[in-house]
Amino acid sequence: MRIDVFSLFPGLVDGFCSESLLGKARTSGLLDLRCHDIREQTADVHRTVDDAPFGGGAGMVMKPEPIFDAVEAIDPPRPLILLSPGGRRFDQPAAEELAAMADTTGGFSLLCGRYEGVDHRVVRHLVDAEMSIGDVVLSGGEVAACLVIEAVTRLRDGAMGNAASPVTESFGASGLLEEPQYTRPAEYRGWTVPDVLRSGDHARIERYRTAQRLHRTLRERPDLIERRGPLSDDERKLLEEFPADPYH
Ligand code: SAH
Fold first, then answer.
1. Is the pLDDT of residue 163 over 70?
2. Can the peptide bond before residue 185 be classed as cis, meaning omega within 30 degrees of 0?
3. Is the Cβ–Cβ distance between 92 and 151 less than 8 Å?
4. Ligand 1 center to 95 CA (angstroms)
5. Which of 122, 127, 137 has the most ligand 1 atoms within 8 A of CB, as the residue to mutate?
6. Ligand 1 neighbourhood includes 136 CB (under 6 angstroms)
């Protein structure tokens, strides 16, 4: 999968995506990430990439010329997605869509804004879509780009050690958050791991885990429960059989 990133700070994205799972995906060829510096496309001596907004107002706006030139010089894989607080919310279904789409398109591209954002002609005539990583304002699209790249790459075949992980974890097929996890030691500072997890009774462990997923989702994200519909009788029984692992 090829991903091209256009940014004024390409090193931010390149650096983040060089470590751990993403670094491995790049070394193995699973991810062909190319980070481009928009500023390289400026012709003037000051290498200007921004200017004051028409109509007045606070801050600066990214000029269209260097962005168009940078993108057109490369002809990157499409869709070209602008990271923007005003875009469609990027979530797990959106990550799955991009990961699946890369099979046919070969990849996609990301454009990172800075300052107050980009000239609207970029939005209208150059990019194919806008995506937001949440109702929060960042200073630039680079962190958002890293988030998209990581979420999509880990869904590609071969990117994760354990192929089952994307299925059972939060926002997976169950529509629930993941249950609390424990590892060795069984006792730490006097805090013990729930007995059931050490019982070896796999059917009971599975029931316990489902109950914990339900408890956690009811507590933290009742909107997810609403979306998947009312609890079944079996699920209600599970909640009674296994009380919630305490939090905080
Ligand atoms: N003035 C804009 C915010 C600009 S923030 C507004 O009020 O909507 C500068 C850049 O950071 C944006 O161009 C975008 O690329 C990036 N950015 C900020 N918040 C973001 C978010 N929630 N999702 C994706 N990108 C974001």
1. no
2. yes
3. yes
4. 19
5. 137
6. yes
Query: Could you identify the residue written with the tokens 């890369």?
Result: 102
Cα 241 → chain centroid = 35
Q: pLDDT tens digit string along 15-70?
A: 999 999 999 999 999 999 999 999 999 989 999 999 999 999 999 999 999 999 99
d(CA 75, CA 109): 10
Taking a C-beta distance cutoff of 8 angstroms, is the pair 30, 1 a contact?
yes
Q: Of 91, 185, 93, whose CA–CA distance to 144 is shortest?
A: 91
Q: Is 137 in the pocket of ligand 1 (CB under 6 A)?
A: yes
- The alpha carbon dihedral of 185, 187, 188, 191 has a sign of positive
Q: Is the CB of 138 under 6 A from ligand 1?
A: yes
What is the pTM assigned to this prediction? 0.95
Quote the tokens at residue 175.
């529509």
Q: Map out the domains of the chain with their CATH numbers.
A: 2-153 (3.40.1280.10), 165-241 (1.10.1270.20)
pLDDT at 229 exceeding the cut of 80: yes
pLDDT digits (tens, 9 = 90+) for 112-162: 999 999 999 999 999 999 999 999 999 999 999 999 999 999 999 888 766
Strands 80-89 and 61-62 turn out to be unpaired
Contact present, 98 and 152 (Cβ < 8 Å): yes
pLDDT of residue 131: 98
Element spanning 84, H or E: strand 80-89
